């Protein structure tokens, strides 16, 4: 049964954030809000958590997982990024964008795209997510909470609790969340390629 945390969207209760991070450190799987929509998340080293995400979403091994990072210092540990790409990404973050980039050796092989050796990264503009990342001290391995055969992501914390109570360890509810996943920009070949139109304005990359 998933624990339910009602968290203030602007002034998150420190005790609640600490309890959720404890669950993550104990290899728990959580549903949490971002600046685009709800996401499923676990620690990078939590292989079982990653497989639980795959099962919930019925994902194949071509799926790009995302490392949700607190800031550029953290992001830079996990992806290779040159000056031109850095400037383009810097101008759009924090925000509702996911960037696909070549991964460093800090990223476990199982998280990489099988052929490209890339991984998705993002820096969200969301108070609760930033508090979680600050307390955890590392990125959260994440995927949009979009259930199979569903046209839109779940947007209400209570709805997620009801639907996924048996497969999650915690649900964080901080009010309304968006229905659009992030805009995805692939920089793996050096040039920007918009591979998914979403919550972030794609025009600056087209």
TrEMBL record:
Xref: InterPro entries = DHBP_synth_RibB-like_a/b_dom (IPR017945), Sua5-like_dom (IPR006070), SUA5_domain (IPR052532)
Alphabetical keyword list? Nucleotidyltransferase, Transferase
Q: Where is the YrdC-like domain?
A: 14-200
So where does this one cross the membrane?
none
Which Pfam families does the entry mention? Sua5_yciO_yrdC (PF01300)
- PANTHER family xrefs: DHBP SYNTHASE RIBB-LIKE ALPHA/BETA DOMAIN-CONTAINING PROTEIN (PTHR42828), THREONYLCARBAMOYL-AMP SYNTHASE (PTHR42828:SF3)
Name of the protein in question: L-threonylcarbamoyladenylate synthase
Organism name: Amycolatopsis silviterrae
Its taxonomic path starts at:
Bacteria, Bacillati, Actinomycetota, Actinomycetes, Pseudonocardiales
């Amino acid at each position: 049964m998933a624990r339910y945390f009602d968290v203030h969207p602007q002034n998150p209760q420190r005790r609640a954030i600490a309890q959720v991070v404890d669950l993550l450190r104990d290899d728990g799987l959580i549903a949490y809000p971002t600046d685009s929509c709800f996401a499923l998340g676990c620690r990078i080293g939590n292989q079982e958590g990653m497989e639980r995400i795959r099962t919930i979403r019925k994902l194949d091994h071509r799926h790009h997982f995302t490392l949700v990072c607190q800031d550029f210092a953290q992001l830079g540990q996990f992806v290779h990024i040159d000056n031109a790409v850095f400037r383009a990404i810097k101008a759009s973050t924090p925000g509702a964008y996911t960037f696909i980039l070549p991964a460093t050796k800090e990223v476990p092989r199982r998280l990489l795209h099988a052929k490209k050796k890339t991984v998705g990264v993002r820096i969200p503009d969301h108070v609760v997510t930033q508090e979680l990342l600050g307390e955890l001290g590392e990125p959260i391995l994440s995927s949009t909470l979009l259930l199979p055969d569903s046209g839109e992501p779940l947007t209400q914390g209570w709805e997620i609790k009801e639907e996924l109570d048996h497969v999650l360890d915690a649900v964080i509810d901080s009010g309304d969340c968006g229905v659009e996943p992030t805009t995805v920009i692939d920089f793996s070949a050096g040039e920007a390629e918009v591979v998914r139109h979403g919550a972030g304005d794609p025009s600056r990359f087209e």
